[in-house]
Write a structure and sequence with these properties.
homodimer; about 425 residues; alpha/beta; Carbamate kinase; eight-stranded mixed β-sheet; four-stranded mixed β-sheet; about 35% helix
Chain lengths: ~425, ~425
């Protein structure tokens, strides 16, 4: 390469909602180039294209196969990369668009939720050297047997970060419709503040517990490969939130933020024999069907019998319920129930490690507002509580206020 | 293979205009399978998808580059192959969809009008052997350097025929919105009759002179590889028109039909020095820019000067005019004029070879209706006349009546 630094810029669906917005994106890429960077742009399908394609599929069949869904959905991005490339040409910049297959995003064969196996960069580097902006599709790839795969919604964040890692890019900028990561969802908490910097660990917990700004896997990838992420708005020039290694210059906040998630449901198996291998049998069966289980709680045993509760994404609920019912019968359990009306509220902050009172304060905030806690799960830098879905807004506001997040940063001792 | 015969079925844009029509196509393929055939379906983009994509491109730039247009337009077919595959699954049939690149339609790099270099069949045969219907995109391919290419509108007919040839298919069925090839365009001549059988040569001349039912290149391909074509309607079970080698069983009609074409324009170079190499210089320059010239007329020379007129597609007119003006100046010609208001009306029939009076009768039909003939071009089985565009309907009706095409087949002696 010619010594110029590489910047990966990822634009989500709202940033390329229509042709006018595509032109805006082209102008932003042109500005970045004028600062002396090589730019690799990763983009998603135009606005509601994916929804429209999904609708077409369901007009044909209630059970579209995953392989054909990938074939179908990959077209949305192919349209947007071609249009953005044209928009760059119109601004007088050299540019070339590529599908996932063409630039070697090699994945496994798990259609609609494929995992990246390899990221080839030869063709991209070649085009960058020629002076072109390289525009690549975000959430699609190609399997080893030459099938088109997609990586699920949000997959393009991970593709962008994987690209940035493979190319040794200086920064991976993720453009979205909000201007960064907040201490809570501003739609619920108007006083929420934008965070200027977060460590990978904090962002991982935020993403895992409901912050929608970045996809979890993309943050894991960034941490594993040391890719600096800058989350920012495509509609303003303001700095957003930087996600980096935890370092000395970082704000020493105890708490980063409060997150919430209403996308999960709870499954409970009653009256299970409490002997070795019971939990293994259940969760192995769920894992075999690619169902991600989030929180797991096992009650204290009584008379060699116990209850096991766990949460899964509502999308997977039907399948999870079927599998659980089958395993419960095999195990001689009393029964299975599901509960869709739950919410998870979480508190995330690296400073928790050295501040033992945080959990107690969070529980107090909920108690003071008559909010019952149904499940609890903790990590070194996170506490999550499952509560009733109807209490979620009240809970987020109460916790946000309890830790003074609206008043400014609570610094570590 | 398992000895089952292969049928290639090609469905145009109107046959797959919406999801209901796609389900119809799926049912027709299912019927064909139930008759014991392996089916390879070649399909186009849904209804107006291509137009919508072109519109998006022009919202971005008035000069979209051909490579990016191909990237963009290829998505239309990818959507329809995926949806048709889902529709087959819904009917309980195994099916798999492929892009042009995936099933090895290898083309040159002439984006938006790529020519087929190679048609690979390995992957298709593999899937047919597994018992699947194979559904492939029609007008797209992949160049040797792994770029997505398209073959221009109508290119999917040729792809279907090329596939049929490579697979040794029994028949290549071309489904369209009309139920066959007619003695004239039924919109102009309500009395026009459907032809049950045509030789390749007749169909070639019909296609070359304006019959829109089949693309010229697809018929050439069919003739060169002996592929039997059956043109029929996707909305009825009736037999359409068979295109085959001329053989003994064929109707010995003198005339197959009357065609017309208003898509061409006439360019005239005045007062050109009449010496060797003049025509070569002009038409070599046009060919170098990929401009197809149809009819060429050179006047009788006077004082070593002459006029040359030729017709080209209106799409190519601007470029043709520029090139002609340049060459005309180099040659010291008097000037160049263009005329967009022309039409070409043609009479096609294998029986002409042995019936010398046909041309005279055609000219008489035009004269009787006060229609002036501006250019004439003949082959052994075709006569074309360029006339004023405003006279085209009258001319087609007059010729159709003159040869009694509305009354039934005029048999050869």
């Amino acid at each position: 390469m010619d010594g110029k630094r590489i910047l990966v810029q990822k634009f989500g669906g709202t940033s390329v909602a229509d042709t006018e917005k595509i032109k805006n994106v082209a102008r932003r890429i042109a500005e970045t180039r004028s600062k002396g960077y090589h730019v690799v742009a990763v983009i998603s399908a135009l606005g509601d294209t994916t929804d429209r394609l999904v609708e077409l599929a369901y007009q044909i069949t209630p059970r579209p196969r995953a392989r054909e869904m990938d074939m179908l959905l990959a077209t949305g991005e192919q349209i947007s990369v071609a249009l953005l490339s044209m928009a760059m040409h119109e601004l007088g910049h050299e540019a070339i668009s590529f599908t996932g297959a063409q630039v070697g995003i090699v994945t496994d064969s798990a259609h609609t939720k494929a995992k990246i196996l390899d990221v080839k960069v030869g063709r991209i580097l070649e085009e960058l050297e020629k002076g072109s902006v390289v525009i690549v599709a975000g959430f699609q790839g190609v399997s080893l047997d030459d099938q088109i795969t997609t990586r699920g919604r949000g997959g393009s964040d991970t593709t962008a970060v994987a690209r940035a890692a493979a190319l040794g890019a200086e920064v991976c900028e993720i453009y979205t419709d909000v201007d960064g990561v907040y201490t809570a969802d501003p739609r619920l908490v108007p006083e929420a503040r934008k965070l200027s910097r977060l460590s990978y660990e904090e962002m991982l917990e935020m993403a895992a517990t409901g912050a929608r700004v970045l996809q979890l896997r993309s943050v894991e990838f960034a941490r594993n490969y040391g890719v600096v992420i800058h989350v920012r708005s495509s509609f303003s020039q303001e700095e957003g939130t930087w996600i980096t290694e935890e370092d000395e210059r970082m704000e020493k906040a105890i708490i980063s933020g409060v997150t919430h998630d209403v996308s999960e449901a709870k499954v409970t198996v009653f009256d299970v024999p409490d002997r070795p291998g019971v939990a293994a049998a259940l969760f192995k069966a769920l894992a075999a069907e690619n169902i991600n289980v989030d929180m797991i709680i096992q009650n204290v045993s009584e008379n060699q019998r116990t209850d096991i509760s766990f949460t899964v994404s509502k999308e997977d609920l039907q399948k999870a319920e079927e599998i659980t019912a089958r395993v419960a019968e095999e195990l001689g359990a009393g029964g299975v129930s599901v509960d869709r009306d739950i919410a998870k509220v979480s508190l995330v902050g690296a400073g928790m490690r050295t501040h033992p009172g945080v959990a107690a304060d969070m529980f107090a905030a909920l108690a003071e507002n008559d909010i019952n806690i149904e499940m609890i799960s903790t990590s070194t830098i996170k506490i999550s509580c499952v509560i009733r879905a109807e209490d979620v807004e009240k809970a987020v506001r109460a916790i946000h206020a309890k830790f003074g997040l609206d008043r400014g940063v609570v610094m570590r001792a």
